[in-house]
Amino acid sequence: MNLKKVIISGGGTGGHIYPAVSIAQELKKQIPDIDILFVGAKGKMEMEKVPRAGFEIEGLWISGLQRKLTVDNLSFPLKVLSSVYKSNIIINRFKPQIAIGVGGYASGSLLYAAGLKGIPTLIHEQNSYAGLTNKWLSKRANKICVAYDGMEKYFPSDKIIKTGNPVRQDLQNITEKKKDASQFFELNLNKKTVLFIGGSLGARTLNQTLQKDVIKLAEAGYQVIWQTGKFYYDEVKDLQNESIKIFDFLYQMDFAYAMADIIVSRAGASSISEIALVGKPLILVPSPNVSEDHQTKNAMALVDKEAAMMVRDIDAKNILIDSCITLMSDIPLQNNLSQNIKLFATPDAAKDIVSEILSLVK
User: CB neighbours of 149 closer than 8 A, spacing ≥ 6?
Assistant: First the structure.
C-alpha cells in the first residue's frame, strides 16, 4: 500500500507541536505528494504554529481538566463527545491511512475515533513521564515511539520503539548561520551571548529573575536574547537595549541557537532534544509545575552525565545569573558540557518514526 493520506493530531504546547511538524516534514521529504492533515484544539497554539509551518489544520472543541472545580471542568464530558463526533466527520471525509498522536487532548479524541474505525494508530511520547492522553491511547495504539528508556512502566512493552524526539530540520549546521544571526538580532558577532528560553508559553521564574538582574549580564559584557512568552512580554519589553533583545516568541530558533554561547532553558523534552543537537553549554531550570516533576527527571538524566548544569526553580532568583557569568568564564567546563550533551542528540528520530509509520500501512 502506498501512503497517501496521514492525520497528525495533538498540541497544546511547543513540546508537542514541533515534534509533530518535524514528523510531517520528514513524511513530505520522503513522499512529496503525501496529503497531511493536522487536528488540534481550538484556541491552542497549534492553530497558529502549524499553518505557519505550511500544513493544514482543523480544530476540535476540547481542553484538559483543571486541577480545581471550574465551569470548563463541568463541560468536559460534552467537549469529549463533541470532539469525538467531529473527529469521526474529519476521518470520514479525509480518509487517512494512519493516525499519529503526539500528546494533548485533541489527539485523544482523534486517535480514539480512528481506532474504532480500524485505522492504524501510532503515538509519540516526548517525555520521561508519559502524558495522560498517551497512557490512555496506548492500550489501542499499534506502535508507541518514545524518547527515554524505562517507558515500560507506562506502556505495553511489545509496542515500544525508542526513537528519540524529532527536532526542526533547520537546526542542522547552525554554526554556519552565526553571521546571519547576528544581523537578524542586531547583536555584536564578537561578543558572548546568553540565550534564555522558557518554553513556548514562557516561564515566570526566568522572567522574574531576568527582570531583576539582566543588567548584571550586560554590565559583565555579555549580550542576551530573552524569550518571554506572550503573557510576560509587556511587563519587561522596556528593558530591551542594544545588548538585550527581548521577544515574546522566537520563530527563528536556528538563529537564536546559532548566536548563543550558553543557553538557559526549562527542561522540557523537546527543548533538551533541540539543544542536544546544536551542542551548546546548557543550564536547566526545571519547571516545578508539571506532572510527577518530570522536568527535573529530564534534567537529571543530563546532569548525571555532566551534559548540563541545573539550577532549581526555587534558587533561580538568587543564583541563576551568577551561574551564567561563572559558566561563561569557564571555557573547559563549557567544552565538557558541549561534548557530553551531543551524546543525547537523536538526529534521525524523525526518519525512524516515519519508518515505523510506513511499516504500519504496508
Answer: 162
- 355 and 217 share a domain? no
Q: What is the pLDDT of residues 327-346, one digit of tens each?
A: 999 999 999 999 999 999 99
Phi-psi region of 69 (alpha: psi -120 to 50; beta: other; left: phi over 0): beta
- The C-alpha cell at 169 is 530540520
Q: What is the pTM of this model?
A: 0.86
CA angle (203, 191, 254) in 5-degree steps: 50
Structural domain span for residue 303: 170-344
- E-only strand ranges, the chain: 5-9, 35-41, 56-60, 98-101, 121-125, 143-146, 160-162, 193-197, 223-227, 244-247, 262-265, 282-284, 309-310
Q: How deeply is 131 buried, as exposed, middle or buried, from its count of CB atoms within 10 A (0-12, 13-18, 19+)?
A: buried
**Domain count across the chain:** 2
Residue closest to 166 by CA, chosen among 4, 5, 359, 24: 24
Q: What angle do CA 290, 212, 198 make, to 5 degrees?
A: 30
Q: Is residue 77 located within the same domain as residue 134?
A: yes
